[in-house]
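Q: Predict the bound structure with 6-O-phosphono-alpha-D-fructofuranose.
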Amino acid sequence: MAEPSQENVGITISNHLLLNQQLSTGATGSYTRLLQALVLACKIIQRDVAKAGLVDVLGRAGTINVQGEEVQKLDELANTTVKRRLSASGEVCGLISEEEADIIEIPRQYPRGNYLVHFDPLDGSSNIDANVSIGTIFSIYRRITESTNDMDLQDALQPGVQQIGAGYVIYGSSCILVFSTGQGVNGFTLDPSIGEFLLSHPNIKTPAKGKIYSINEGNYGYWDEPTKKYIDWLKHGYSEHKTHYTARYVGSLVADFHRNLLYGGIFLYPADLKDPKKPQGKLRLMCEANPLAYIIEQAGGLATSGRERIMDIEPRYIHQRTPLIIGSPDDVKIYQDFVEGRRP
Ligand code: P6P
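A: Predicted complex:
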């Protein structure tokens, strides 16, 4: 299917999805309805995020989520919004939220569909009170079990290569939805005056090499040696690589990822040994690493755990964590050289 080009800039996401559907042989409209439900959920979350400071939605809800993190009120609103909209679409057989321990069953009044979605309803929520960009991340699979009932664990634990779509919304200076269904990556910017996402970034490709590295340097003492050597090389190896790398770290995954996707560069959240409960680092495989790996590969980049391609990882449990090194292919390959001992 031909990717949108510049003359398509400005078309609504609904028209883009319908064009996609018309050009997809055998398409029934189910996938389009699922994506439209996701788009609606993100518009509702954007509305809540935009007014958070005014209606005291800010602040903490006083509960702790499955990750052991303090849940913000907006987290709860976003989680409920995505669950309601996707369930009501009648196109999903189950959902997995970063905020909930177990598979989310679809309320009985709705039909079951053939898709399932892993999602992080509001990533970066610790930044909410500081008005720093936050985001929603989603990852779409087809069910692999033959059943008209709810999904089971086998459906939920598919490797990232089985994704049929993925994307994120960044609630920042503007609200941008970036997603792919396997034919490249497109970005849509919300025009709040008409409540429509309009195509603003057709066929995104990430630069082969960047000048930005994103990592929480406060964890330096907890990194493995190859990661330390790579970051030292970036900072002190100018005489060799002749590039002045700039450090940029928002501490909100979608913000750091989106900037590097467009400008080029590398984001790293390696395994850090400061928390024995998280020897594989902080980020989740199914609702953070896999969807962003899908996007970056569709945009010409790479995503690795250091040991293997992110999308090849066979998940063992739904909230599994993984180190994530993701971005411009030439930068990720140099990191891999340090990991595999090809660089001292
Ligand atoms: P740290 C936000 O809480 C998050 O899950 C990601 O959005 C972000 O990339 C990461 O954690 C930041 O973690 O340990 O650097 O504060």
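A: The radius of gyration is 20 Å.
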